[in-house]
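hi support,

uploading two proteins for the ticket. first:
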Amino acid sequence: MSGIGTLSSLPAPLRTAIAPVLARIATSDRGAARERNARTAASRTSHFGSWCKARGFQDLTFAYTGPAEAGAILAAYAQEIAEGNGIVGKQRPHVKTIQNYLRSAVAPAIAQGRHDPRFLRHATDRSGNRLYVPLLDRVFATAKKWTPPSRPERQPITLAMLHYLVTRVGGSSTAEFTSAAAIRDAVILASFTGSRVSEYAQTQASKGSPFNIVPCNAASGVEGGRPLAFIVSDFRFFTASQLELDWKDAAAAHYISVRFRYTKGVHSFTSRMFSHLPDSIFCPVQAAFRAVRRWRLLAPGEDTPVFCFLQAFFSRKPTFLADHHVTKALRIAAEKAHPDARHLVRQHINAISAHSLRVFACLCLQQAGWDEDTISYQLRWNSSAIKHYLRQSVVQVDAIGSSLLKDALVPASPNAKPVVKR
């Protein structure tokens, strides 16, 4: 087990007592994404070991290697990764990729409780950050200067695109069960909530699972095994006087409270309230109601994602909305709403993805006059991400879109609690 190589120095009774607990830590479900990251890190550790062996270096924990020599070895390894000699042979890898290779390379040394040979001993900058050894710092500095941005370009959708997606759903009795209808409602809601794609669609589900789930461990408790994406109980509907409604009566709801159970950041189990938009095709309350009604009628099973549809009229088993469904629909919307290939949106069409809805929400609130701290709270973002997308976006939202979003948001008040109908 990684990180416990010195247990032999502990008394035998203590080793016996804590062994089951350590085993539970090692086998704890961390989620599909973290498991993939762990496998990548292990592959990189093995890659460094093979690299060292090919060059006649055996001291992989740097137990008998001096600081200067260790720094030189790591710098040489980092330089070869920067030159495209990593596991997949990627040319011009990002500096963070190179740094992650080095983090994996020194993992055995750190697991043995040794000094991290990437850094100078007892040396920090003015902000308290540890300083890399000079040769390694030089490799990172060069890579940082000449490699692409760490965050991929993401552009917002436009109101014309949103209008196309909302109005393209047919009027037949079966239209509400199609992917177009599910995408319409997900796109509307995500435009107001600023949701990450995993909150309403599936990304990379574990093998054998139709949707992404919350990891099953001591921390997740009863939430373990539930979908990452919204489930029916995450949506609560209220009247104008804040009386809770049954979902069957939610067509007349004035407010919807959306609970974000499990997010990428630190804002899990938070809620935001949204108001209806009278006579608007973009009403978030109606979008949520339609999604819940569709889920109830299709009946995919308890504790399953709310955004689902039928692949075909004769399908018996519902399909859960996925990120590739949304991205494809958004790019088609870009072409339909902006048919001239010279349009700025068309020139950046590859930067349109499910994440574009989140950027759209951010820009709308900024256009409406909200400051970055308030936007950060409302959308559950960190401030650095907001700054990044505000500066990066070449497509700007119009006043209509920002006004639309602002009108649906209900300011949070710690003392305002909805009255629950008994």
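and the second one:
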Amino acid sequence: MPKGKVLAWILYDWATSGYGAIIGTFVFSVYFTQEVWDGDGGTAAWGMMVTLTSVFVGLVGALLGLVLNGVKTHRFFLALFIFVGGVSGAALILIKPEPSYAIPALFLVGLGSFCIETSFVPYNTLLRVFVPQERAGRTSALAWGLGYVGGVLCLLVALVLIQSGFIPDDDLLNVRLTNPLAAGWLLLFGLPIVIALYKLPKKSLDQPGYAPVAPTKERIMRLLKYRGMWRFLLSRLFLAEGLTALFTFGGILAASIFGFSTEEVLLFAIALNISAGVGAIPGGFLDDRFGPRFVILISLVCLILSGIVIGVIEDKLTFWIVSIFLGMFIGPVQSAGRSLVAKSVQMNEAAQLYGLLGFSGRVVSFIGPLLVTVGIAITGNDKTAVWIIVGLITVSLFVMLSTPKSLGHIDKSEIFEESF
């Protein structure tokens, strides 16, 4: 596969990074809970929006992987999701700091987040199609690392918009302008992968990995049973719960527990993205050297230890230091999960397994945010969220430990043709 198509694939992580950092986690989420929502229920309302969005992402993602697979279908939906996600994100500039805008804000963020998250099923499938299995770890990590770098650059531009003084702060316009920034980032850098897919030769669309594969009950069961893959998916489910809760409430908790201002939340986000990018790149080489299972286990242990420390400290400086350390393992644990699938299957099996991966990570990912929302409501203490996240990741670790050591090692045979 020409390097240009691989580069276009890598750029998509960069394209979506600004959207997640600005709209999903660090800027608009704080703006919504502190400025738009009237009263103390903003965090809970945001959590419910994330919950509903996650359910739809899991269901539609599974449909794209299991039924509507094949490059022809995937490239159409990828282009559609990029366009709708960009438009809905840009429209958030219209959300003023008034309670009457709360429901439209939740709808637009939910729609955009659905498009971005669901687009990763066809996108991740292309890792197995475009990249040799021997280089899947470092390629996945490079994309993830560049994604974090893109998030940092986007947040830096957002910080300039907010603090420059050149943009009037009437109705917090300087903050609201960061939304079309994230949307434009998505549209600009998401375009290369769409162009690359539509420029594929017609004859290649019938080759393995490009042509659609009809799902059968037998094929799906074999995919799940192969090397204990179902245990990996179960572990991924609990990890996704914890990370979704972390990404959803990270900026909100920094503001409510440690008193971060909007500017401090932005700087905090930049620091976390830098640490995540720094961790992702060496994680990819360790992935190709020792296997993705090894990288996932080490990352989970470090995430748990960091979370425990955050749960007991009160000092802002210590929170900064531990959070940056934690961030160094967020990139590797996610990237290694993506490469594990790429190394475990052949090209014509990738879409279905990535569909199952998306399903396991999203269809019940409302549980993480819901547990956090309920926990905070019961205890009245926002730090309850930290312990819930630690608990979810701990369960993920124990399930992952039960998987066979051969999981993620390259196997040239087709799963469907193996006997069990």
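thanks. also noticed: Residues 415-420 have pLDDT under 50 and may be disordered.
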